[in-house]
Write a structure and sequence with these properties.
Strand content: 15-25%
Oligomer: single chain
Radius of gyration: 24 Å
Largest sheet: 5 strands, mixed
Number of domains: 3
Number of helices: 11
Distance between the termini: 18 Å
Structural class: alpha+beta
Strand order of the largest sheet: 13-20-17-18-15
Length: 409
């Protein structure tokens, strides 16, 4: 709760609206993009990513039934259900045009002279708002909250000048983090495009002088993913044994994947005893994790020693196949993994899936040349990612102190 800031009912100063319950049969290949909770990345920059959405409804149906659910530049959106309820994002021009689906609530101030939208953005990320949400959340397997609960909530409302100062301080951090995140995306894209040019389109240095034999450059090997890497498994210590948990060892699960190549930390930690009681080994830095169940094909390079659960595989290149080359090659092959995923309840890949993925093994010299370039790229990604972690830590320390009035502006 805030110290000295007067409070108002949320409905007095904030407009909010939940999306409609669209159904699968309404989806089309093109039309109006639809935002779901999965588009709220929950990352350091509170990014909303709609670049890879496969959810659309026809423009005719949108204009006839759903136009009032269209979101605008600057709208704030919050996930209202599932294990990720409370995730917050800010809509930008890059996301538009766009409308909401159910489980997404959009917010904006009713009157900017009374409530600053940047301050509202800070409030939706605060412990104050989260605490109120948690007090209303219903549902065990599928927790959720909605407009009915929001109508019972309130918000601290300092003078508008103070709101603007708080908002400008926090959003300045957000903008720096987002700029770095976009630079990271461009760097990783440069590595992906170089891999595609050299090893998919076969326009590698000196390709003009290399014979192609059976569709493969002379000196290259045609094999499978299984033959060029170790495919290793994980496991989970018993969750009811307290001595196995809250230790010093990061425990990687699919929830720890990020929107860039590296994973620095995990939501869960285990003890040395827990590690000894599960089927995971302690995997070295730069081990490549691939998610194997549910959301298949997310790739993460561990940036410290980590254990791993059974919903992933740990991949280690053999011989001259180093981890950066392995990451880029599997990134290019992810669609093949997804196409071969199967399962009665949810999609999954198994060890034998790797035996079905074709793999072209270039000459060691070419792998070395490629690695020299991408090592510099990934070094820059690492530096920018580390900078973002420091910025987000500083911002997250400031936010509660600004919002509760203990730090004056």
């Amino acid at each position: 709760m805030s110290i000295g800031f007067p409070r108002k009912k949320l409905t007095d100063v904030v407009f909010f609206q939940e999306g409609p319950g669209l159904r699968k049969w309404q989806w089309t290949d093109t039309g109006m993009k639809v935002i779901n909770v999965t588009n709220l990345l929950g990352n350091e920059a509170y990014t909303v990513d709609t670049t890879n959405t496969d959810k659309y409804i026809s423009l005719v149906e949108f204009e006839a039934k759903y136009k009032h659910f269209e979101v605008n530049n600057g709208d704030l959106v919050v996930a209202s259900s599932g294990n990720t309820y409370g995730k917050v994002g800010r809509i930008t021009e890059r996301n538009l045009p766009l409308m909401m689906n159910t489980s997404v609530i959009r917010f904006r101030s009713i009157e900017q002279s009374e409530l600053d939208d940047r301050y509202l953005f800070c409030f939706l990320r605060s412990n104050d708002f989260r605490g109120q949400v948690d007090s209303f959340v219903t549902g065990g397997a599928q927790p959720n909250f909605g407009p009915t609960h929001l109508k019972k909530m309130d918000i601290p409302v300092p003078e508008i000048s103070i709101q603007k100062k708080i908002g400008s301080i926090i959003v300045a951090y957000d903008d720096l983090i987002e700029n770095n995140r976009r630079r990271i995306q461009l760097l990783e894209e440069s590595a992906r495009l170089l891999y595609k040019e050299w090893f998919v389109q076969l326009r590698f240095p000196g390709h003009e002088h290399v014979k192609i034999i059976d569709g493969v450059p002379e000196g290259w090997g045609k094999t499978t993913a299984y033959e060029v890497m170790d495919v290793l498994s994980g496991g989970t210590p018993k969750t009811k044994v307290a001595e196995y948990w809250d230790g010093e060892i990061p425990f990687f699960t699919p929830k720890d994947t990020t929107d860039n190549a590296f994973c620095y930390s995990t939501k869960k930690m285990i003890t040395e005893l827990g590690l000894s009681k599960c089927n995971s080994r302690l995997y070295a830095k730069n081990t490549l994790f691939i998610t194997a169940r549910g959301t298949v094909g997310k790739l993460s390079l561990a940036q410290r020693e980590m254990a791993m659960n059974q919903s992933c595989y740990a991949l280690v290149g053999q011989g001259e196949i180093n981890q950066f080359f392995l990451y880029c090659s599997l990134k290019a092959a992810i669609d093949q993994f997804k196409a071969r995923a199967s399962g009665a309840v949810f999609d999954a890949i198994v060890v034998d899936t790797f035996k079905l993925i074709p793999f072209l093994k270039p000459t060691p010299l070419l792998i070395e040349q490629f690695t020299e370039f991408v090592t510099d790229v990934f070094d820059q990604v690492d530096k920018l990612s580390s900078m973002n972690r420091r910025l987000s830590e500083a911002r997250d320390l400031l936010l509660p102190r600004l919002m509760n009035g203990t730090l004056t502006v």
